## 1
Amino acid sequence: MGLKRIIIIGGGFAGVKCARTLRRRLTQEACEIVLFDRENSMVYYPLLAEVAGATIGPDSVATPLRQLLPHVLCRTEEVRRIDHAGSEVEYEGYDSRLRRMGFDHAVIACGSSVNLNLVPGMSDHAFPLKSVGDAMALRFHVMEQLEKAEVCDDPERRRWYLSFVIVGGGFSGVEVAGELNDLVRASIRFYSNFTTRDVTVTLVHSRDQILPEVSPTLREFARMKMEQAGIHIILNTRVVLATAEGVGLADGRMIGGATIVCTIGTTAAQLVQSLDRPKEKDRVVTDPDMRLRGIPNVWAVGDCAVIVNAYDRHPAPTTGQFAERQGRQVAENIIRVLKGHPTRPFSYKPLGTLCGIGERNAVAEILGLRLSGFPAWWLWRTIYLLKSPSWSRRVKLAFDWTWELLFPRDLGHARTNQTERITRAHYRPGDDIFLEGSPGTHFYVIDRGEVEVLHRDDRGQPNQIVDVLGPGEFFGEMALLDNLPRGVSTRARTEVDALVMGKDVFQEFPVPWCPSVSC
Ligand SMILES: Cc1cc2nc3c(=O)[nH]c(=O)nc-3n(C[C@H](O)[C@H](O)[C@H](O)COP(=O)(O)OP(=O)(O)OC[C@H]3O[C@@H](n4cnc5c(N)ncnc54)[C@H](O)[C@@H]3O)c2cc1C
């Protein structure tokens, strides 16, 4: 057969299963397997909500690829392009230069990415949940809100710090709502300035029931249990806007929240978007055997591909269960091609679905059996423990879960000192941007809309409008330059989009700022 090179792009559920199956079935003399992933670990997404909820540590869901895949060449690099005519991939090397590598077969398994731009303001004000970094950032943000609420003497603002909005009632939305609700309510006993009555966790879902993937009785059970646990569920309405204060709904309501988590809005990975092949909703369409149409040696599996399941003739759903099975079957098809045998169409009978809903409850449909409540939660944990990709992670996970049974969840939030960057913020009419007397932390350039500058009168009340700023004007620099509290307040007069930069980024600018307003 001669030494063949098979390149796998993506070390997620599909890519890892494919690499493992190939390595088990083909000798190193027969085949070199190269796996590219821009991260060096495989992320076990179904447990990310538990990381955000401080039930388990980040290490329990991230398995280093090279330890998971012996005798596979793991390259932590991003593939930029697939030249299917020349059978080469183009990737960004360690020195940022583009390099090329030839292949006999290539498997695209690069999953999906988050697209928060579907809703105005979401990318600036909401937390996504698609990486270990996202889960940890959310966890620390929640801890920070608890600490702020503890020292806040304004009851309304305190309740706002303790308001959490989760957008999307699918698996990840339900799981993260349950986890955050459990985390906050179980931690209240360590704080003295607020009670459970001050906490609001709201789940917003556009359809008439949460968890559309499970049967109606289980959906209803999940809704009832979550509401009993204190989660407010809003159905049949869409979130149309996100601001620093909360989310706006299509029916005109505004839900306040210092924490917004967005679990909707996914799009295929960038690499797939750049492929000149037929696509549906950004995902590449494959032949029944998972080959790209008209290309005999390039295959696509997992969330980035539309693959019809021969078992029920429907496109396979984008779940870890299907991605794994496709990874295994694509490896078997490649081996058939290498041996000159005909390939087989993808066919899989799903085993079922599982979803944790908080307070040690879950819903489960396994092999036709429906379970809910504590038994389903026990089954959910057992299955995810067994399906975790390596023994080292299983032991870590078992340790974390045992620890959580014995001790309260960890409320520490180590500062990660993220590098400051320039972001875009969105404000609704009437939203405060900053208040007089508050410390100067950011500088703003108005992109769209109008901002009112307000000053207290001699008696301190009410605010008087002293200026109105429009597109292209900037504000907020004086407090940064002079290291003083804000001399004025600012408020959005209309819908406002603004570029916002933190103190450190602002001070790196070599521009002698000409202040437009002293704030
Ligand atoms: C919060 C959350 C909870 C979930 N819960 C469940 C659940 O309970 N049950 C379930 O079945 N499914 C669940 N899913 C869905 C499941 O995780 C996905 O369906 C599954 O991960 C898809 O596998 P994949 O291999 O296609 O992609 P992924 O697992 O996303 O892997 C893709 C990999 O490709 C890499 N990559 C992307 N582009 C490039 C490039 N250009 N070059 C190099 N590498 C690249 C990425 O870094 C990534 O590691 C959940 C997903 C999320 C986000």
Note: The longest strand covers residues 352-358.
## 2
Amino acid sequence: MPDTADRVLRNARVDGRDDAVDITIVAGRIATIEPARAVDPATALPDTARGAPGPASLDLGGRYVSPGFVETHVHLDKSCIMDRCSAHEGTLAEAIREVAKAKAGFTADDVHARAAHTLERAILQGTTRMRTHVEVDPGIGLRGLEGVLRLVDEYRFAIDIEICVFPQEGLTDNPGTEELMIAALERGARVVGAAPYVDRDPHGQIDRVFAIARDFDAPVDMHLDFTLDVSRMDVAYVCAKTREHRYQGRVTIGHVSTLSALPAARFDAMAAMLADAGVAVTVLPATDLFLMGRGIDHDVPRGVAPAHRLVHAGVNASLSTNNVLNPFTPFGDCSLIRMANLYANIAQLGQRAELALCHEMITGRAAQILGATEHRVAAGAAADLVVLDCRDATQAVAQIATPLFAFKAGRMTMSRAPAVLHRP
Ligand SMILES: [Zn+2]
């Protein structure tokens, strides 16, 4: 163990090792991972789990240390507004309409307070990195951005936040919105988003979004093909634009629920096209389940794109939360391990390797979408970690394991005591 260690996580389990290990953290990074040494009972978990920022040495009792969870797609600005909206139809059109009405009353302080609440829930669930979408249009102006932008510094101790600005109420059909997107990028948004299906000319919006992204040398992250109508898909157009602008590896598309409705041969062709263009896919199981298939009274389709099949075809994919407590998704606890479990349920995945892949899609694969390629528990990597009350990634997904500790650059940011059974 290095003499300069800031912290040692003793008796831990990590991916790729059968034995228990000690993880030494120096200057915010993992310095060494070595076979576990005998533990001093005085530092055992029940005694050390109480206080943050916590002791320099922590015995994890053989629990699993995962890379911190990574949220690639979440809407902090419109979270926690169910008390201001209704969701009677449960359709996408109703959700956009209801949120547009509620947005008229948003102030920067109101957005900040709700977004901070949601963000803290995410941190308490073990999330250490996030891309959040923020809406701009002539109605909300930059108030949403102002509310969310403040969180980037306020919560830097626990989470890296990247803002993706996007035109939920249209771009080419909504004059003034493009200027606001540009203003948002000048003020700190890092990614250009889209919702092409809300404009009459979706390809026109896609063209403008790529043009803006090129001007700012920014990545692109679009909501795309958020229906079950396979007769009208924009995936091929986005892949073509990605190649044309040499944007391979910098474009992500979210939802793409149409992929769930394609016959196998057409799905395989689409997956090959995405892999070839280097376009990643974020699947948003909670929202897709809630909004898709409305109006169908039996054999209701799930409407959730098969992310695992995309990965097998060479596409990078992540699973993410999307909405929390609003008409797009009137529930949510910001738990990504629950989202991975939900996806496994929907996609009928039960084998060990399949469950481990679900975990990858909320950790390493998700981080890669955000440009963080070294997001793993390995010597040299940043110590952005979550300790789960289980033995490995498979159990974590299968059992929705409870996060007990989170660390950002080696500093403890969250702790939760394991539940105790009180016998008579
Ligand atoms: Zn979204």
Note: Residues 45-54 have pLDDT under 50 and may be disordered.
